[in-house]
């Protein structure tokens, strides 16, 4: 097993190694999805999380072994890069890769646990959430800052931003980091980056107005473009879900 740890926890290498090796047997389950599983552990008195990525198919086993960085490695490296650029994400601790003979096997990503009162999805589901509009505007400013720094978070979706209240306002932490780009972003790409966040027009309008205000863009054009991007995504998502249902039906 290949293990890389952050310099901040290099003295805990053996303990992290133990967590990685015994992932199936130890730890408390935080999230258990179809593709990945996240567990919580104690490291030096602090809660940390370890995410185990689903073992890829044969094609990706070959790709990850010889041609591409694994999701775990990308998550770790992108987290370090985000923090270097002043964008918050749970403190990365390390990653591990377990080979299956000559092929890629399992991979794990470890980071500190951030206790968050909400995610962006909370704002979508609860229209009466305290300070909802204020948080939406602050989130938009956070996204603008990210764009200005040349960070394109490809999975900018409802569950991937943690919201933490601080003394002055709100902090936003990005999670699920394995798909990112670092480059200068044009306006079309920036607007498109909001498309997956919410299907609610009033939320899109609030974000578009705030983004136009701080970026010096035309407000009406920004609102129209952001809403169109949202509608296009929702339509595409709906078609994919309908196709999945049909495929499941014919597999029965």
Automatic annotation (TrEMBL):
GO molecular function terms listed in the Swiss-Prot or TrEMBL record: kinase activity
Keywords linked to the UniProt accession: Kinase, Transferase
One Pfam family recorded for the sequence: Kdo
Transferase among keywords: yes
Domain of life: Bacteria
Protein name, UniProt field: Lipopolysaccharide kinase (Kdo/WaaP) family protein
């Amino acid at each position: 097993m290949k293990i890389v740890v952050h310099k901040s926890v290099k003295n805990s290498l053996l303990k992290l190694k133990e967590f990685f090796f015994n992932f199936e047997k130890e730890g408390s389950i935080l999230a258990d999805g179809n593709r990945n599983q996240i567990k919580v552990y104690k490291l030096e008195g602090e809660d940390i999380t370890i995410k185990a990525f689903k073992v890829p198919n044969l094609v990706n086993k070959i790709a990850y072994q010889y041609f591409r960085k694994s999701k775990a490695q990308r998550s770790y490296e992108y987290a370090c890069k985000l923090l270097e650029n002043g964008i918050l994400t749970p403190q990365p601790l390390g990653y591990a890769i377990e080979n299956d003979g000559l092929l890629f096997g399992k991979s794990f990503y470890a980071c500190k646990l951030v206790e968050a009162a909400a995610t962006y999805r909370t704002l979508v589901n609860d229209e009466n959430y305290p300070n909802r509009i204020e948080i939406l505007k602050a989130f938009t400013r956070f996204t603008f800052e990210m764009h200005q720094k040349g960070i394109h978070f490809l999975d900018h979706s409802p569950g991937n931003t943690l919201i933490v209240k601080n003394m002055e306002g709100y902090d936003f932490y990005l999670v699920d980091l394995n798909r990112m780009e670092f480059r200068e972003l044009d306006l079309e790409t920036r607007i498109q980056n909001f498309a997956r966040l919410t299907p609610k027009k009033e939320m899109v309008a609030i974000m578009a107005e705030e983004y136009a205000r701080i970026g010096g863009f035309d407000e009406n054009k920004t609102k129209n473009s952001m809403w169109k991007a949202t509608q296009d995504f929702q339509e595409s998502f709906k078609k994919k879900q309908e196709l999945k249902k049909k495929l499941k039906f014919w597999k029965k």
